[in-house]
Amino acid sequence: MTQKISTESYKGVRDFYPEDLFIQKHIFSIWRSVVESFGYVEYNASVLEDANLYKAKSGEEIVNEQTYTFTDRGDREVTLRPEMTPTVARMVASKSKELVFPLRWYSIPNLFRYEKPQRGRLREHWQLNVDLFGVESTDADTEIISIAYKIMRGLGATDNDFQIKINSRKILNDIYAHFNISEEKSYTLSKIIDKKDKISEDVFRDSIRETIGDITDDFIRVITNNERLIATLGSENENTKELITLIEKLNALGITNIVFDTTLMRGFDYYTGIVFEVFDTNSDNRRSIFGGGRYNDLLDIFGADKVPAIGFGAGDVTAQDFLETHNLLPKYAPTAQVYICVLKDDLRDHAGKLADTLREKGVSVAIDLSGKKVGDQMKIAHKQSIPFVIVIGEDEVISGTYPVKNMDSGDEVKVKMEEIAHIILK
Amino acid sequence: MTQKISTESYKGVRDFYPEDLFIQKHIFSIWRSVVESFGYVEYNASVLEDANLYKAKSGEEIVNEQTYTFTDRGDREVTLRPEMTPTVARMVASKSKELVFPLRWYSIPNLFRYEKPQRGRLREHWQLNVDLFGVESTDADTEIISIAYKIMRGLGATDNDFQIKINSRKILNDIYAHFNISEEKSYTLSKIIDKKDKISEDVFRDSIRETIGDITDDFIRVITNNERLIATLGSENENTKELITLIEKLNALGITNIVFDTTLMRGFDYYTGIVFEVFDTNSDNRRSIFGGGRYNDLLDIFGADKVPAIGFGAGDVTAQDFLETHNLLPKYAPTAQVYICVLKDDLRDHAGKLADTLREKGVSVAIDLSGKKVGDQMKIAHKQSIPFVIVIGEDEVISGTYPVKNMDSGDEVKVKMEEIAHIILK
Q1: What is the mean pLDDT of each successive set of 10 residues along chain A, which is 426 residues long?
Q2: Using the beta-carbon criterion (under 8 Å), do B303 and A4 form an inter-chain contact?
Q3: Which of B300, B325, B350 delimits the end of a domain?
Q4: Whether residues B315 and B384 fall in one domain
Q5: Residues B135, B47 within the same domain
Q6: Structural domain boundaries, residue A399
Q7: Alpha-carbon distances of B136 from B166, B300, B308, rounded to whole Å
Q8: CA–CA min distance A188, chain B (Å)
């Protein structure tokens, strides 16, 4: 007990002081406002999941090296969820007979990955998850990508600040088929393509050559040139046609900052069709902000009926990085709208009643309880960024008229109690 | 891969389908609205904490038998927070030089306890934590208990539905001193008194007799009779005077459903003064709903300056039980306010543009993407409890007049696009 306990948080996670949480709440509020405007309803689940949930489809690296998995006292293997898609798939599969499809669902869970903390990658982050279950047509893909676009606009981005890269896993499969590449080698190639932006061009080429040998140069030429790709698959290819339709539908809704990129993979093994990623175009922050895709087969792992699904996940850390890079962070405002100071301690009961009256009118009121001199009380209000102050002395109690001071402008008006709420709320 | 994965959640935690989360959000919204009206600002932290944080003050049972504690891959001992008070104390201690006191802080964290799931006690629950740092006077206790009271009223309770029990750890210490009971035996007695409502009167008496022998009957008479207690400590006792002042201040604010109960302990070792608990008076749910108390010494464990503090924690499970028992659960309403159905698939692009226009006016709009017949589309809207439906055919596209149907009343009005938002939002 003599040894002092550390005040530091656990490694790679964040403490959210009110000013920090204010930013996160700003991001959450934009997220909610956009997805709810499309009629999405919120769900949630525990961070604790049976470890088996991640062993089927999440991708090897995530399960083996990057999860927090432990054995509980009842000998169950438990994982702190590293992503939300398996959880939402589990929940939908569990009630697939009762739920009324199509489902528009969203959630803002916290997720855990055991990895070395770095810019944009912490051990815990929050992630907006938006999913549309039960629609196979490109109208669903259009809606999900529209929402992604509107979230960027909602955060304050212009069309020039970001780009939406789109691809289709099915197109890549057609290319593998065109080159007669085996399923096993295709899997290896997909993993190499997924790392393309993180490795040099030479390493990229060499890794592919190790897998498919002589056809490497041809293969790379096709996957890095859209015209050649479309020519190779032929103008009647269903999957390139689907992708073009999707881009046209998005254009019709005014969304034009779209790029078709055959090398866009997304890490997870469960994607089956369209995948997309939102990229920051700012040279200081050129990276993926978030993304998603179609996963029509994921419910199979639960033995449930097939339910087509498409969705995306957008993290709070990358959103905040984006706001910082583009100078879009909100200015902190506290909860309290007015701070009541008292000239004497025994006026605090009167202050309490005034506060209660104002609260009933929807004003957020903090009363000074410091017992300090009135000047110091006002300093507290100022340092806590509270916009209005009322000082109560005996005169105010007798007259029923109160001085309402605007801390920003310094203006003060003396008004009856009934008028205070109006001044503060306007 | 052939073995199917279970769709069940991990034992003792909950899946929140939209209808379930709706209730939790209703509770959170009342919590936020009350505490923010008092100027409290929100903070947060990770569920992961260094296990050492709980070893100093939380109480033996919680740390040794009831936490989720595991060793991470970097050999750190990590605990999923079982309560928020050590975390908030750590955060305040960490920045005690920079923060502007008094601090009014709240949070709604999820907490974990490894225990047998039962009514009102799950392995994971959410808990409103409200804390006021930096005020030693009873004005702080008054404010915190007022907030607890207003939360009950906010949930829909009348004064008859609940009671606030109040005690002071300092009064109990004075009684121990009066009976010359050693510190070690006092600690044992406090643990027995804490279990009073869970054990029989005989077991209670026998356990105390094992600790203090002959004076048992005298001791029990004093702690179970307020008049005798006050007489025993004398009318000049500072701590009973403080408690009486607190009750008078609460009465002055119109809060009268208060009971002084010397046997009210609260489990945690860190309380130093006033403790209180809100009790449900309904015979079907007679139990503690939530509570809190003063903990002036907790920051000592971090080697920080002393900061007086008082706060409470209120759980979502017990809040929901309270709403159920008292028939106060809210009626589910989805996010979408209007559902747009289409007579033909190729009208969906027109529907998309109409939806975008309505969204800009603040209406939440879901478009039917099911591809089903219009009657079945309307059934989806009905089953998802969406209050309005618009059906678009070629006539509507040509005329620019749309039928807005109120699904509850069955009424339908045909209006121009500009008027739709007005009808739905009013």
Answers
A1: 79 96 98 98 97 72 74 90 94 94 97 80 94 96 97 96 95 94 93 89 95 94 92 93 95 94 82 94 83 91 90 95 93 97 93 95 96 95 97 95 96 95 94
A2: yes
A3: B325
A4: no
A5: yes
A6: 338-425
A7: 17, 16, 6
A8: 20
